[in-house]
Recover the amino acids of this structure.
């Protein structure tokens, strides 16, 4: 009866500590740490997007979406599908995926909300069970159609940047270029793009009429209904938006980490950590926690083991929920 | 009286099946009975006390590894290993309950989920002792109860039946005792129970320890009867399965876990003949059950046929 599942594979579908085989023996502590920080910043950027989707859904709908990681995975798989269907220069396929995949995932999630969650009246406990069901359905249908392989999407651009390091050698301080010490333009672009998108989300919530309606529903569902806000529609759109953000993050990361039907486990776990530590439903707390968790995950994974990093993360979530349910930065209890 | 007759009748029927079933279904039913014991443990907490745990795999695995490691490294026989497994699972449940019961609702679900995940990852991390992902096969010495070899089909079936009988009857006795009534009252309205002067926290703690101990007994039994201990039994999936069995069979009914485990086992068995994506069945079942039949099979029986069904 042992079928695979992504959140069961929280430890297995993760890349190995990426430095242990290449540069570790050659590199000093400083460059090593810098690389871990860059890698952590990529994780943090993608995590901020994914987690703000989860946080939004919880904040507005009070729904804990266990299928969030599955929507992330679906975004990556659709990105691969779109990219290989379009062909030509990688930038075309990637660009199309960046727009189409989140929209498709968002539409699917909105439909799932209308078909399933709305009928449960968004009751917190029953929706969790239903989203566990959705997780299995999405994952297993992907396994049946896309298959168990991991497939990459080619990055639109991917030039290598070697980084310098200052070291005290025999002739005093000098600039050196350690072997294997560098990053790629694509990774830097991911960090930038994710920051821009989070800023866009914030502008949407704070400055547009739709964002105002969303925040009004979050503050008081019944009062919003009384003022004529179509709450059912807002919920479906919120669920779609949340899933779309996860898919967007996945499209950004899929050129670095391949698309696989079990890849949703880590984003789900880390988003949970971020959302709970940052305070449920608070966007600034979520962003702060994403940076914190992304960087520390990068560092612990590089210097210790990814499994240990996840043990620490899971225990941290549990203990924060037990002893400080409003989150480390939040002020409102969950 | 009728209730007792019904449950004893089921056990007698299972004993009779021992003599008539073909080998394949005989083996399956032994496995279903062990899994149903796990479901019985889960049901005590979820069905009666109304606490939805997403981390019972931790207790199942605690029983399994407690027993398995005692055989592997401590050289115990089946009986000793089983007792150690149950005690370890009860201990883990007692400690986790102290923390998790400080939260309610969604918080409780996530806290149990996270602790179970930490337990699973810890099994992978300490792979020198636990065998990590691959687990280990139990040596033959650990599968001997005195001079009885529990790895033979006949002994295995009867041992599984004994384990299931004890779990089922203990659960029946518990829920019909005043303790069980208090649990149901807590599920329905905890505030009111507290106002009536009951210590609801202590009652929930006891329920969680008992639930963990029964789940651990099932885990230890699984290790001894089927001879394998592995990290896959600590995965989140093994926390979801008992929830699924209980929802399908009927939460808060004594027979529900067995009915649910039996149905689901054969559904997944049939599906895995068709596709490797057999967990699709579980996903669809979860969604359909929450949407259309939150009471489950025995819950419907109780609603339509027999209101006093325990």
């Amino acid at each position: 009866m042992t079928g695979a599942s992504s959140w069961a594979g929280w430890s297995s579908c993760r890349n190995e500590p990426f430095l242990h085989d290449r540069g570790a023996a050659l590199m000093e502590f400083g460059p090593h740490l810098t690389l871990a920080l860059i890698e952590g910043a990529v994780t943090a950027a993608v995590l901020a997007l994914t987690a703000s989707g989860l946080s939004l859904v919880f904040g507005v709908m009070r729904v804990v979406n266990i299928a969030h990681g599955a929507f992330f995975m679906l975004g990556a798989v659709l990105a691969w599908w779109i990219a290989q269907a379009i062909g030509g220069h990688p930038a075309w396929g990637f660009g199309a995926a960046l727009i189409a995949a989140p929209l498709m995932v968002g539409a699917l999630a909105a439909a799932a909300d209308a078909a399933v969650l709305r009928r449960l009246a968004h009751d917190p406990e029953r929706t969790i069970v239903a989203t566990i069901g959705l997780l299995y359905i999405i994952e297993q249908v992907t396994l049946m159609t896309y298959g168990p392989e991991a497939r990459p999407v080619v990055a639109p651009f991917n030039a290598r940047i070697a980084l310098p390091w200052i070291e005290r050698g025999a002739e005093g301080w000098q600039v050196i270029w350690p072997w294997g010490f560098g990053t790629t333009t694509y990774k830097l672009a991911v960090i930038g793009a994710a920051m821009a998108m989070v800023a866009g989300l914030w502008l949407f919530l704070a400055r547009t009429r739709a964002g105002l309606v969303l925040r009004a529903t979050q503050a008081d569902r019944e009062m919003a209904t009384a003022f004529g806000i179509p709450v059912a529609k807002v919920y479906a759109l919120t669920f779609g938006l949340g899933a779309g953000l996860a898919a967007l993050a996945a499209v950004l990361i899929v050129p670095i980490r391949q698309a696989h039907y079990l890849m949703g486990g880590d984003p789900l776990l880390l988003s949970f950590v971020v959302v709970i530590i940052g305070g449920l439903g608070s966007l600034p707390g979520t962003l702060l926690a994403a940076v914190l968790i992304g960087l520390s995950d990068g560092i612990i994974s590089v210097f210790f083991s990814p499994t240990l990093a996840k043990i620490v993360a899971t225990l941290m979530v549990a203990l924060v929920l037990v002893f400080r349910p409003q989150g480390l930065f939040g002020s409102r209890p969950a | 009286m009728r209730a007792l007759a019904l449950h004893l009748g089921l056990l007698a029927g299972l004993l009779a099946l021992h003599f008539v079933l073909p080998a394949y279904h005989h083996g399956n039913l032994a496995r279903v009975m062990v899994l149903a014991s796990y479901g019985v443990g889960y049901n005590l907490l979820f069905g009666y006390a109304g606490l939805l745990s997403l981390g019972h795999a931790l207790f199942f695995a605690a029983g399994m590894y407690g027993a398995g490691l005692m055989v592997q490294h401590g050289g115990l026989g089946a009986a000793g290993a089983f007792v150690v497994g149950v005690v370890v699972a009860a201990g883990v449940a007692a400690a986790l309950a102290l923390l998790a019961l400080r939260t309610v609702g969604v918080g409780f679900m996530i806290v149990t989920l996270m602790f179970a995940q930490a337990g699973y990852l810890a099994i992978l991390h300490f792979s020198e002792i636990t065998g990590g992902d691959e687990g280990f096969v139990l040596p033959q010495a650990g599968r001997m109860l005195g001079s009885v070899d529990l790895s033979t089909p006949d002994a295995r079936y009867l041992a599984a039946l004994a384990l299931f009988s004890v779990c089922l009857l203990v659960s029946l006795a518990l829920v019909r005792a005043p303790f069980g009534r208090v649990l149901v009252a807590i599920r329905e309205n905890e505030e009111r129970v507290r106002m009536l002067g009951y210590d609801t926290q202590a009652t929930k703690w006891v329920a969680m320890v008992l639930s963990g101990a029964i789940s651990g007994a099932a885990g230890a039994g699984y290790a001894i009867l089927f001879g394998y201990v592995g990290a896959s039994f600590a995965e989140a999936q093994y926390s979801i399965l008992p929830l699924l069995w209980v929802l399908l069979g009927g939460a808060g009914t004594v027979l529900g876990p067995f009915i649910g485990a039996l149905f689901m086992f054969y559904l997944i068995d049939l599906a895995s003949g068709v596709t490797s994506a057999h967990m699709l069945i579980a996903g669809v079942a979860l969604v359909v059950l929450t949407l259309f039949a939150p009471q489950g099979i025995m819950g419907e029986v109780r609603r339509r046929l027999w209101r006093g069904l325990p």
